[in-house]
């Protein structure tokens, strides 16, 4: 029996694939340094753990409303008011099983067969696959490295057709760590207004910014942009809660209602205990978030310094998230490899350092390194990469 067409062209997540290979090598006893992970290495803060334990003790272990418990929705609307100065009612919020499932459900309720969604590349690996699963068509627009991997309004304008329904903006970005400024978002917003496009604003790395730049949501810029934006966010990256699976979407009532209907027939609800943990995250003080941000900031400075000393590795310093996305094409060529994918494979085989090739993100000259690991591990990884390049260049 053949499987459904929709899964036949599905590509496995390249980030998960490299993490799995690194784990397998580790299990065989190799001293592997994994820089592939897309999750903070810190424990979930204590006050959040305690809230989850309390929820269990109080019997909050049953089905909840499909779109999340009202207390958590209240906390999310308060967060959006506090951080983005945006007013939402609870009917405009859905709590989901991670931000990933918010995006998945959104594309399901939005797209008909052949509807196009503009995806700036480099992109987070799941966007194109999720769009395809909803029978939509991802339209990849290559952002220039010289423009910090950000698309321009002209590029967006050029990519719009009569079938375009939405565009994705992910700032700070996975995999590049780059951020759009208010002015850049304004200019992109004008194109979206002109062509009546919906904006999917993925703000999951909002709290992880290491410069003076302020995070801006495109929904903040005008009433019209507010109406046409669905904000996606969650606690995974901000509060080191990847395993708890809590995210949310905020947007137009009709969209959120359709998403809740869909959730009622798929997930029923996000895990009740995890919802109470997320409630504590959004209502607690953010000192734990700030501590993690400071640690990431120190690691970014250090790793960026070490990497850019390696011949053939070119890397602009990003503003946010916890990734570096250097161009290693010259290093791969000077080492005698056909391309970056091979270079990455050989690096894992020979030096046991796991990076994610940029090809999975639509950017084949780059690699993604996550600095969600200790400074000591990062230093060792940089030394091994340096040695690897030196050995192959000589
Ligand atoms: C850009 C981006 N959006 C969404 C997600 C999904 O996050 P969650 O763990 O909340 O599903 C990730 C996680 O890697 C991400 O990098």
Give the distance, in angstroms, between the N- and C-terminal Cα atoms.
53 Å
Strand segment count = 12
Bound molecules: pyridoxal-5'-phosphate
Total domain count: 2
Q: What's the level 1 CATH class of the largest domain?
A: Alpha Beta
Q: Structural class of the secondary elements?
A: alpha/beta
Helix count equals 15
CATH homologous superfamily descriptor of the largest domain? Type I PLP-dependent aspartate aminotransferase-like (Major domain)
What is the averaged pLDDT score? Answer: 96
The CATH topology annotation of the largest domain reads as Aspartate Aminotransferase, domain 2
Q: Please state the CA-atom Rg, rounded to the nearest Å.
A: 21 Å
CATH architecture classification of the largest domain: 3-Layer(aba) Sandwich
Uncertain ranges: none
């Amino acid at each position: 029996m053949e499987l459904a067409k929709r899964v036949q062209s599905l590509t496995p997540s390249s980030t998960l694939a490299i993490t799995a290979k690194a784990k397998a090598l580790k299990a065989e006893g190799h001293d592997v340094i994994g820089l592939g992970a897309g999750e903070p290495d810190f424990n979930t803060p204590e006050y959040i753990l305690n809230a989850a334990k309390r929820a269990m003790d109080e019997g909050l272990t049953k089905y909840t409303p499909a779109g999340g418990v009202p207390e958590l929705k209240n906390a999310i609307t308060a967060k959006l008011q506090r951080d983005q100065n945006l007013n939402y009612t609870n009917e405009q919020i859905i709590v989901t099983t991670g931000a990933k499932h918010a995006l998945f459900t959104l594309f399901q309720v939005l797209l008909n067969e052949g509807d196009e969604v503009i995806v700036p590349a480099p992109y987070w690996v799941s966007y194109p696959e999720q769009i395809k699963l909803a029978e939509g068509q991802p339209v990849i627009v290559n952002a220039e490295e010289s423009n910090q991997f950000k698309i321009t309004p002209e590029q967006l304008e050029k990519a719009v057709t009569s079938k375009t329904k939405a565009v994705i903006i992910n700032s700070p970005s996975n995999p590049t760590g780059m951020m759009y400024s208010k002015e850049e978002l304004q200019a992109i917003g004008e194109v979206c207004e002109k062509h009546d496009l919906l904006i999917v604003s993925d703000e999951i790395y909002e709290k992880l910014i290491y410069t003076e730049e302020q995070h801006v949501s495109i929904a903040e810029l005008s009433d019209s942009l507010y109406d046409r934006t669905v904000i996606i966010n969650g606690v995974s990256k901000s509060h080191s809660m990847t395993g708890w699976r809590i995210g949310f979407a905020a947007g137009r009532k009709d969209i959120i209602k359709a998403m809740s209907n869909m959730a009622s027939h798929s997930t029923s609800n996000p895990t009740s205990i995890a919802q109470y943990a997320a409630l504590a995250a959004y209502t607690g003080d953010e000192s734990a978030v700030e501590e993690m941000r400071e640690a990431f900031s120190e690691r970014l400075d250090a790793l960026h310094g070490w990497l850019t000393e390696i011949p053939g590795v070119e890397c602009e310093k990003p503003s946010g998230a916890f990734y570096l996305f250097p161009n290693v094409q010259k290093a791969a060529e000077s080492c005698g490899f056909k391309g970056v994918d091979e270079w990455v494979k050989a690096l894992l085989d020979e030096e046991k350092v796991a990076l994610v090739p940029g090809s999975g993100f639509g950017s084949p000259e780059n690699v993604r390194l996550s600095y969600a690991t200790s400074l000591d591990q990062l230093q060792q990884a940089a030394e091994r990469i340096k040695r690897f390049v030196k050995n192959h260049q000589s």
